[in-house]
Amino acid sequence: MDERPTLDDIRRAPKVLLHDHLDGGVRPSTIVELASESGYEELPSADPDGLRTWFTEASNSGSLERYLETFSHTVGVMQTTEALARVAYECAEDLAEDGVVYAEVRYAPELHTRTGLSLDAVVEAVLDGFARGGRDHGIKIGALVTAMRHQARSMEIAELAVRYRDAGVVGFDIAGAEAGYPPTRHLDAFEYLQRENAHFTIHAGEGFGLPSIWQAIQWCGADRLGHGVRIIDDITEREGPDPRLGRLAAYVRDKRIPLEMCPTSNIQTGAAKSIAEHPIGLLRRLGFRVTVNTDNRLMSGTTLSEEMAKLTEAFGYGWDDLQWFTVNAMKSSFAPFTERLELINGVIKPGFARLKWHRA
Predict the structure, then answer these.
(1) What is the CATH number of the domain that holds 309?
(2) How crowded is residue 4: how many other Cβ atoms within 10 Å of its Cβ?
(3) Is the pLDDT assigned to residue 193 strictly greater than 60?
(4) Of residues 315, 326, 331, the one with CA closest to residue 352
(5) Boundaries of each Adenosine deaminase domain copy (predicted)?
(6) Which of 19, 250, 312, 320 is the most buried (most CB within 10 A)?
(7) Whether residue 294 has pLDDT greater than 80
(8) C-alpha distances in Å from residue 280, one per residue of 115, 288, 327
(9) CA distances from 329 to 104, 198, 214 (A)
(10) pLDDT 10s digits, 25-76
(11) Which one is catalytic: 93, 104, 206, 307?
(12) DSSP assignment, residue 345?
């Protein structure tokens, strides 16, 4: 009897999501409605189904330029407090429907100020949407405020993260093209966050290799790595029974530095060739602190349940593996320690136990 979890089974499991972009998960129908309300006239299609198809094709085109173009449309309609609060609320609703019990969702406040909103107004609108969505749908969402690594506003955004950390912002991030924009360009922001005892993750090891990961950890002090896929470059003899870890890979594993991996997105951006060849398989086998994430649910046409189902199919994972990924994520979250323990022991482990018992 095959006890491998099905997609429907996985949807019922209590899951944890650490790497999800707010502007990468907007409903196509919402984009169309917000465009009509705001007078945004640049959508490639005014039909929600046609727009969804366009996003999928653009994201899988192999063209980075076309992939990045997709975000111009989601960000383009997220320029009012009402729009931001709605998108955040719907994000909470969609994640809860997929069985996510805790999520950290990131966005760059500086991208939502084109019509005159202040950074504070942007943050407050998103927090309002998350709070209402969380109450209505039984999910806890913490916000990560992101600075764009090619801009020079990281200190402002870091101060924003600290200013709102008691109101729902759980941490800070930098995102954008890695090549040519190393994390050390924002060292002052990271040093400020460390002085303020604040949490932060850094996009590293996705579009650029080991130097990006090394700088994020050793210079900037990242708590987690956004993606971190290219840590595989520091592991040799991968096909043998005893893969050899380089100094950096060994350090990442020894220090239990969480890797926020997003399998489908990693394939779209060229960081991995296929699900079956994704580094997550080897890294899980070697005991790295790996987590499974969605990155951009709209662009990748995915959910967290679907990401886990793909890994189950590719690597033969069972309930114990999926629980391992989930506990990893909850342990690695920026939620308070007591909240992490309550969710692990009171929700996640009992939830997986019920599913395993039901399938037994």
Answers:
(1) 3.20.20.140
(2) 13
(3) yes
(4) 326
(5) 14-349
(6) 19
(7) yes
(8) 41, 9, 16
(9) 10, 18, 22
(10) 999 999 999 999 999 999 999 999 999 999 999 999 776 667 778 999 999 9
(11) 206
(12) I
206 is catalytic: yes
Query: Among all chains, which residue has been given the structure tokens 């975000």?
Result: 71
- DSSP state letter for 275: S
Q: What is the pTM of this model?
A: 0.96
Q: Is residue 269 part of a domain?
A: no
With contact defined as beta carbons under 8 Å apart, do 328 and 258 qualify? Answer: yes
Q: Is residue 272 part of a domain?
A: no
Residue 276's region, left for phi above 0, alpha for psi from -120 to 50, else beta, is: alpha
Provide the token pair at 65: 């330029």
Helix (H) or strand (E) holding 73: helix 64-76
Q: What are the E-state strand segments in 119-264?
A: 140-148, 169-175, 201-204, 224-227, 235-236, 244-245, 259-261
What was the pLDDT predicted at 1?
Answer: 37
DSSP 216: I
Output the known binding site for Zn(2+): 19, 21, 203, 295
At 296, the amino acid letter reads N
Residue 11 maps to a domain? yes
Tokens standing for 228? 């971190």
How far is 235 from 288, CA to CA, in rounded Å? 12
- Count Cβ atoms below 10 Å from residue 239 Cβ, excluding itself: 6
| Separate counts of helices (H) and strands (E) for the chain | 17, 10
Could you give the CA distance from residue 301 to residue 297 in angstroms, rounded to a whole number? Answer: 5
Strand 259-261 relative to strand 290-292, pairing: parallel
Mean pLDDT of 299-307: 97
Chain centroid, CA 13 distance in Å: 19
Residue 255 lies in a domain: no
- Domain count for the chain, please give it: 1
**Could you list the residue range(s) of the whole structural domain that residue 348 is in?**
7-26+78-197+291-359
Residue 218: which residues within 8 A CB-CB, separation 6 or more?
A: none
Query: Hey, what amino acid is at 271?
Result: A
Which residue ranges make up the annotated binding site for substrate?
21, 23, 176
- Half-sphere exposure in the Cβ direction for 182 (13 Å, CA): 15
Rounded distance between C-alpha atoms, residue 199 and residue 171, angstroms: 5
DSSP lists the bridge partners of residue 105 as 20, 143
Amino acid at 2: D
